[in-house]
Amino acid sequence: MPCRNNAGADPYTYRLVGVLKLELRGITKRFGSLVANDHIDLVVEPGQVHCLLGENGAGKSTLMNVLYGLYDPTEGEILIDGKPVVFKDPGQAMAAGIGMVHQHFMLIPVFTVAENVALGNETTRTAGFLDVEATRRRIRQISDQYGFDVDPDALVEDLPVGVQQRVEIIKALVRDAEILILDEPTAVLTPQETDELLDIIRQLKRDGKSIVFISHKLREVKEISDTITVIRRGKVVGQAEPTASTTELASAMVGRAVKLTLEKGEPRTGDVTFKVRNLTVVNANGQRVVDGLSFDIAKGEVLAIAGVQGNGQTELTEAILGVQPHVTGSVTLDGEELLGRSVKQVLGAGVGFVPEDRTVHGLVGTFSVSENMILDLYDKAPFASGLGMKPSVISENAAKKVEEFDVRTPSVTAAVGTLSGGNQQKVVLARELSRPLRLFIASQPTRGLDVGSIEFVHKRVIAERDNGTPVMIVSTELDEVVQLADRIAVLYRGRLVGIVPASTSRDVLGLMMAGVPAAEAEASVKAHAVANPPAVPEASGREGESHV
Q1: When you count CB atoms within 10 A of the terminal residue's CB, does the N or C end of the chain come out lower?
Q2: What is the residue-averaged pLDDT of the chain?
Q3: CA-based nearest residue to 28, from 60, 76, 82, 84
Q4: How far is CA 16 from the centre of its chain?
Q5: How many Cβ atoms are within 10 Å of 377's Cβ, its own excluded?
Q6: What average pLDDT does this structure show over 307-319?
Q7: For residues 135 and 197, is the Cβ–Cβ distance under 8 A?
C-alpha cells in the first residue's frame, strides 16, 4: 500500500492512502454557556458516505470545524486509523488527509481557478518562481478523472456556483484528501447541479474516498448515504439507514412530527392590486435579461415564478424593488407607480421583501438581532422619536418576534451573523411580516433551510396570503412552487413562457422551464402518455415518502 510523508501533521509522520478511518469520541464544544456539541461520537469508515443530518443550528458545522482544526474541542478526541490526533489549524488537518468544502466557498473571485487551487499549497520552480503550470496540469488531471470540466485559467467570479463548488473539491483533492467533508453542499445549487454533485460523490466513493455529507435535505441524504447520523441541538439522537422513510428522518431531526406536505385552503381572491406591464430590464452588457413581462396578482393569491436559476428571476425582483438601474415598463401597486422610486420608498409603500441571498441583501451580519428586526423602520415610531432611537422599545420588539417566529438565538443582542441560516431567515421574515403589507415578495424563501424551517416559512407565506395580501414567490425548487402557488408563471431567458394553474403537472412545467409554450407542452405530455402507458405499479412499502 502506498504511503505519503506527512511531516507537518502531528502526532504521526506517515499515513496510508485510501484506508483512513475517522473516529470522533465524546467531542464537546462550548461557547461560553452555549453547548454547540455535546459529547458526540461518530465513526466514518473508509470508502463510506456518512451523512450528518440535522436542522440548521443543530451543531453539524461546528462539529466539522472542530475536526478541521478551525475550533479546539472543549472535550473529546479525534482518531484517524485508531491513532489520536490533534489539529491546531486546517493545515494540519489537510496534511493528515482531511479536506473540507465549506457551505460558503473560500475562493478569491478575482483569481483564476489555478491561482485559487495553488493558494496555500504553492509549488516553486528554480529561482523561487511559482510553478502555476504544475497546478494547471493537476487540475486538468483531476477534472478529466471526475468529469468536472473546469478550466484552470477561468476567473472564479465568471464561474457558475456549481462549478465554483467543483473548484473547492479540486482544492481538497490536489492536497491528496482521503476524507472529504462537504458542509451543506447543495444549499446554493440548482436541481441539475445537485444531481451532478451526487454523481461526483459516487465516483469519489468508488475511488475509495470517505465522505462526510452534512445536510438537512432528506431526499439527497437518502439517495447518497451509506449510513446516517442524526444530530439535534448538539447531541447525537440516533442513527438510521437510507431505507428509512423521509417522515421518520424528519421526525428524528426536529424532534416532533413534521408534515412534509403543505395543507392550505382554496384562495379567497379579491381585487387585482399588483400589475406588471411590459417590464424590461437591460443589463450592463446591453442584454435584455427581463424581456417584456406582464402579469397581475390579486389580493389573497400566491403567484409563483418558476424557472431554472439565471432566467431573469433575480432581475425581476430587483426591478420591482428599485435596485435595477435600466428598467422600462410599468409596475403598479393599488394604482401607484413603483418604478422610479428608491428601495426605501418601495418598502414604505407597503412592500415586504425577502431577498434570495439573506446574508448579502437581507441582513447586516455585524448588527444585532434586534437591530436587524428594524432595518427598514429604524427612523419611524415607535422605534424612533425625533433624531433619537428607543433601545428599550427595539429590544422589546425583538424579544416578541424571536418568540413568535421561534428564532433560536442566545440573545436579541447577539450578532445576526452568528445565527444558523434557518434562524437568519426567520429574522428576515419576522421583520418583513411584522408590518401591514400591500404586497409580499419572497425570493428563494427556503434556500438552505431544514425541513422544520421550511414548514414554518411555508405556513407564514400562506397565512399572509389568507390575510388578503398579494404574494409573489420566486423559487427554483419545483416542489416548493407547486405547494405554495395558486398560479405559476414560468420564465425562460427573461420571457414569460406562460401562466398556468398550480395543478399543472411537473412534466408540463419542466418542458415550459425549457422554453416550450404551455399549450405545446401540454400536448407533448399527453402524446407521450398515450404512446407510453404507465406500467402497473408494484407495492413499494414506502409510505410517508415526500419530495423534500
Answers
A1: N
A2: 85
A3: 76
A4: 35
A5: 18
A6: 88
A7: no
